[in-house]
Amino acid sequence: MGSSIPFLLDRDEFELELVRWRARLAEYVPGFAMSPAIMRIHPNDQMFTHSLEHHRDLGAALSQYFAISLQQFSVARQLLDALYGDQVRRLRVLDFACGYGRLLRFLGAVVPSRQTWASDIQVDAVAYVAETFGVHGIVSHADPTRFDPKQRFDVIWVASLFSHLPEPLFHAWLARLLDLLAPEGVLCFSVRDASQLPADVKMPAAGFLYATQSENAELDSAIYGTAYASESFVRDALVRIAPDMPCVRLPRALANEQDLYVVAREKDRDLSVVPEVRRGPWGWVDIRRLGRNGAIDVQGWAASLDDGDVQRVQLTLDGTRVDVRTGIARSDVAAALDDSRLAHSGWSHQCAVPEVTASVVLQVEALSERGEHALLYAGTLTAQ
């Protein structure tokens, strides 16, 4: 994988898990050719290495990485379909601050690579996504005024960049990207609002807070850290920069964490379809144990910010499926997501494998009554 991986990762184990994930993900993006190249993860992909360092578990890191990737793709797809209908495949789309392609690996299911541009300040990231996903690469710049892609775009997608910018760059990049929209174009960008602040930190009266820490230690903290912006701050910024452009806010639309703003360049553009975007089921597997005696203990939570309850999860253990109901008290989930409907989103399952074994392949999916599903965890449990 490379020296950036924060602790020893067995390459054979990693490659085997990616083969398994290729089959799993094909079910979530039907009709899309899930090639081996699409399953590659660059060794410097901070979104993956950060998860790996935090969880110290390959299955958990891959589960978090792909779950967020799939959820972001689902939201982007819904927005593109709602706003452009059968014209989607003709759009010129820019994935700005694309990183190493967490969205791009699936975006080709909706927008052809020849119609997709990808930009990032990390030169190797741009080279990687251009080669791997066949998109047009554009290296960005620390100075927004020096970013000149030589064209305008129908859709500019910016996931998570504005949640890392200091205030001057927040305004400057917002102005620059809005200026790069085609006449009927839209800008979609995400931010962390005050609800994501640590409990002991208060949002300043201006509605903006910037800290110099981030998951990407390679970027200068003077231009890339961790930012929080209130809705009033964002709307005030838009009024100053683009007073006539319609805008809607989708709370916690990305990964049930970041708010998504959709801004249309055309002042008469109807954005009433945008609030219908669904975020889908969400959750996590907090405990996943395989004892040396074959006993299995799996616990977690599953919920939906769209509908409240997700009534069941489906566990697959070495190919054997079992449905598990939610309903266990999880006041921590309700508090973290600020939604009292999720107070009993917990679930738990204990069983024993028929024969004592050294490892078991576990997959956990959340299933909603509307037929939506989300992959919460997939990985190999090793006997402890």
Radius of gyration: 21 Å
* Corresponding CATH superfamily of the largest domain: Vaccinia Virus protein VP39
Beta-sheet strand percentage?
25-35%
CATH C-level label of the largest domain: Alpha Beta
Percent helix among the residues?
25-40%
Biggest sheet architecture: 7 strands, mixed
- How many E-type strands? 17
Structural class: alpha+beta
What pattern of helices and strands is seen along the backbone?
A: HHHEHEHEEHEEEHEEEEEEEHEEE
| Strand order in the sheet with the most strands | 3-2-1-4-5-9-8
Mean pLDDT: 92
CATH architecture classification of the largest domain: 3-Layer(aba) Sandwich
Principal-axis shape: globular
Number of helices: 8
CATH fold-level label of the largest domain: Rossmann fold
> Low-confidence runs (pLDDT<50, min 5 residues)?
none
Layout of SSEs?
Elements: H1 11-26, H2 46-55, H3 58-84, E1 93-96, H4 104-107, E2 116-120, H5 123-133, E3 136-139, E4 153-158, H6 167-179, E5 181-191, E6 208-211, E7 226-229, H7 231-241, E8 247-254, E9 258-264, E10 281-290, E11 295-304, E12 308-309, E13 312-317, E14 320-325, H8 331-336, E15 346-352, E16 359-367, E17 373-382
Parallel strand pairs: 1-2, 1-4, 2-3, 4-5
Antiparallel strand pairs: 5-9, 6-7, 8-9, 10-11, 11-12, 11-15, 13-14, 13-16, 16-17
Helix pairs in contact: 2-3
